[in-house]
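Practice problem 4.
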């Protein structure tokens, strides 16, 4: 239970495959304890700072609820109601919060900032999403695959379809590689993960036996056990990129035709997703471009194959595992 005591959680490649698997195992154990009413509070008296430069529903909720379950307290800090960023540097903030808190969660643009917090706070720092990586999401996704795909991770075919240049696409590649999966990134030319991330994954694959395919061909969806995607425009990006994203990525929309290439596959999405007209962004995009469903159709999103809300719930159990493993 104490295998990562005092460690940071900044990106997937900081962990060995064994550590990554251990975190998934601990998540399963904690989920089971919660379900059976036997949860033990391992974080009593701990205080955790939650810094959000970008918005969140799941990640914030998961940290706060996991802390409640485990007996810890949290403080939510954003940039509009604290000094962070505009009046006080990340380095100084780290030194202040490290005197008061037992751990710090950070969500923001720059990976360099979460690393600066880690270097200067003296307490475990958790990356709740940067432009480069989304590692807490990947633990939830792995737990969801374990629950729904009845195969060892090394036999699972995991496919990511869409814009793979950003946090979720990069993290998907590295996490699935740590788990030794058949990892396939299906993206139009220019939307692949950066070369240094692919090289990193290939180095990890040499040890785990993962098979990596990066292609623009939708045929690579054939044989998938899990099909994942993410939004086409991420937090922090300008609205004027929608036009080029829709043009490039509409052929890579996860729709019934695409899912038919992999009968029995589950559909995964970190959420939030643009699958209908029930959001202001979805309506704006429809009014500007006439496209009613974006990275996934409403039909697939609501289909029996969709496990997106299990993924969302698993953010709680996996984030709890990260805090328990590093703090207890
Ligand atoms: N998937 C995810 O990180 O969700 P939030 O942005 O709501 O935290
Ligand atoms: N790529 C998305 C993930 C949201 C959870 C973003 O950064 O906005």
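Answer key:
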């Amino acid at each position: 239970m104490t295998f990562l005591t005092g460690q940071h959680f900044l990106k997937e490649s900081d962990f060995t495959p064994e550590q990554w698997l251990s975190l998934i195992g601990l998540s399963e154990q904690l989920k089971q304890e919660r379900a059976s009413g036997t949860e033990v509070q391992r974080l009593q008296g701990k205080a955790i700072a939650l810094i959000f430069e970008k918005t969140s529903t799941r990640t914030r909720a998961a940290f706060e609820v996991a802390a409640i379950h485990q007996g810890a307290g949290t403080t939510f800090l954003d940039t509009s109601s604290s000094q962070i960023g505009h009046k006080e540097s990340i380095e100084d903030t780290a030194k202040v919060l490290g005197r008061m808190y037992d751990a710090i969660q950070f969500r923001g643009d720059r990976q360099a900032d979460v690393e600066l917090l880690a270097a200067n706070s003296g307490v475990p720092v958790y990356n709740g999403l940067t432009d480069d990586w989304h590692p807490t999401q990947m633990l939830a996704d792995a737990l969801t695959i374990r629950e729904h795909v009845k195969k060892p991770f090394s036999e699972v075919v995991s496919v990511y379809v869409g814009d793979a240049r950003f946090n979720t696409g990069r993290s998907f590649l590295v996490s699935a590689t740590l788990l030794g999966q058949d990892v396939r990134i299906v993206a139009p030319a220019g939307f692949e993960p950066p070369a240094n991330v692919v090289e990193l994954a290939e180095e990890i694959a040499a040890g785990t036996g993962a098979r990596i395919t990066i292609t623009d061909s939708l045929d690579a969806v054939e044989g998938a056990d899990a099909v994942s995607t993410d939004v086409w425009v991420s937090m922090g990006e300008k609205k004027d990129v929608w036009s080029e994203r829709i043009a490039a990525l509409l052929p890579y929309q996860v729709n019934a035709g695409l899912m038919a290439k992999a009968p029995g596959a589950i559909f995964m999405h970190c959420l939030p997703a643009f699958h209908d007209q029930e959001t202001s962004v979805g309506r704006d995009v429809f009014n500007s471009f006439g496209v009613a469903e974006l990275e996934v159709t409403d039909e697939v999103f609501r289909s029996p194959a969709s496990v997106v809300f299990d993924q969302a719930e698993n953010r709680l159990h996996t984030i709890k595992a990260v805090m328990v493993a590093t703090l207890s």
